[in-house]
Amino acid sequence: MKRKDEERAAASLARGMAMICVRNTMLEDLHAGYVPMTKTGDFSDVVVIDGTGRRIPWLELSRLDDGEMRDLMRQVVDRLYTFMLRIEDPAFRDAIDPWMNAAARWDDPVLDPGLAKTGSWTE
Q1: Residues spanned by the domain of 95
Q2: Is residue 58 part of a domain?
Q3: How many domains are there within the chain?
Q4: Does the global pTM surpass 0.85?
Q5: What is the residue-level pLDDT of the chain in tens, covering all 123 positions?
Q6: Source organism's superkingdom (predicted)?
């Protein structure tokens, strides 16, 4: 397979997996709700007041608690695992085709510079 064909196939698969295995998870529930309004455009003017009266700047606020992060990661891992095991199944392919087509309209992916460096994806 030519390099451009490999890149095109990888881009399609990456977008589809992101749609099916990451976006269509409990992340949608975490994304639901009100988005605060900002006059500055960078949310530096937004604070959250917690149950103890503590004022937490939006930019310092954790949006997910440890349990939500753990549950999200488990669901993403399970979906990625299922996707990889079932991708050759024609019935599975038929079921995911609409999602793959929707994801095809997303921006083209680019190499992540941190992950592209062998073993240094945490930078």
Answers
A1: 3-33+63-111
A2: no
A3: 1
A4: no
A5: 799 999 999 999 999 999 999 998 999 998 899 999 999 999 999 999 999 999 999 999 998 999 999 999 999 999 999 999 999 999 999 999 999 999 999 999 999 888 888 765 555
A6: Bacteria
